[in-house]
Amino acid sequence: MTALWPALQQKLQHCLCPPGNGVFTVNTAKERKEQLHQKLFGQSENIESLWHTSLAELPKSSKAVIMGIASDCGGGILRGANWGPLFLRNTLLSEYPQLSAFDMGDIRVIPHLLHDKYLNEATIANCRKALYQDENSPYAVSPLSLTEDVLHDFYQAFPEKGIFGIGGDHSISYPLTKAYLQAKKAKGIRAAIIHFDAHTDLLVERLGIDLCFGSWCTHILDDLHANNHLIQVGIRSSGRPKSHWEDTFGVKQHWAHEVRESGVDKVIANILAQLEGENIDELYVSFDIDALDDSVASATGTPEPDGLYQEEAMKILKSLAAVYPITGGDMMEIAPFTDSSGSGASSAEKTLAAGAEISAFLLNEIAK
């Protein structure tokens, strides 16, 4: 067991909470939380104690480790992605009971906060008192700050394991990918980010905020070995052409219309050719559910038409995984209580089913 584990275990017990508990509520979705806890722990009482005990199993657990970040403070269109971690976990456990993954729990989210750098000292002290009963606690208080801090220690203690983050809005991928990339770079590993999305997320800032769902990609570029190691798939909703984003930021994009016009096999061949030419060792997959067509995934904050179909996304992922190890990933922007399609509960169920299939595949790959 790594010598770093005892300190990390203590940090996890302070900065995380049991799976599904990342949204602080009294009665909302109470039954779904109890259902999740029953599946994970065999009961729905004394969950905090059972979860603390379960953390002791992390060192010898699966290489695939789930962490929920139930925050949508970095969003800004339709909210509700904070419920993604709870709902997606329940779907995964119901539909994919044989998954080999360890659930580490949820980041403790104060829903009004985004990153500690936006807070003054008095607010941080008050939030530390609320989260840790200690205004002088050394721990961060905002979801992006907490996630990055926890994962830097996680990757130092367990470099052979991979995190699968469940969000939450896409700002969450900023700390997830930043910690991942920095850990890989420290080991001399050349990692690429495969980013599925309808949107580029390459703003420098949005309404004065530099870290949000529309800008997170811009702020991880320095952590890549080269900017074109950010490869974006499914883009279609943009006020600027593909050439603007590629020329300005040096990233590589494969827009959704290219899949329609050239076929998914051609897009796969182009991605694989680029990865081979860049001597990439490992992949991280960040998946915004709105990469999929809104007929497939409409329970999300910004559903878009003319997107990827589920089988196309899966074919791309399977083709990449056949050549490169996928060692980290995330599923973002599932908002189960939203309904932009007018189809009621079936909208959420269809979106969750699509997200669960992709998530289960990624978890199985990380577990390898």
UniProtKB/TrEMBL annotation:
Protein name as catalogued: Arginase family protein
Residues noted as binding Mn(2+) in the record, renumbered to the chain: 170, 197, 199, 201, 288, 290
InterPro entries from the UniProt entry: Ureohydrolase, Ureohydrolase_dom_sf
Organism: Thalassomonas actiniarum
GO function term, MF aspect, one: metal ion binding
Any one of the GO BP annotations: putrescine biosynthetic process from arginine, via agmatine
PROSITE patterns named in the record: ARGINASE_2 (PS51409)
Cofactor note: Binds 2 manganese ions per subunit.
Entry similarity comment: Belongs to the arginase family.
Entry keywords, A to Z: Hydrolase, Manganese, Metal-binding
Cofactor: Mn(2+)
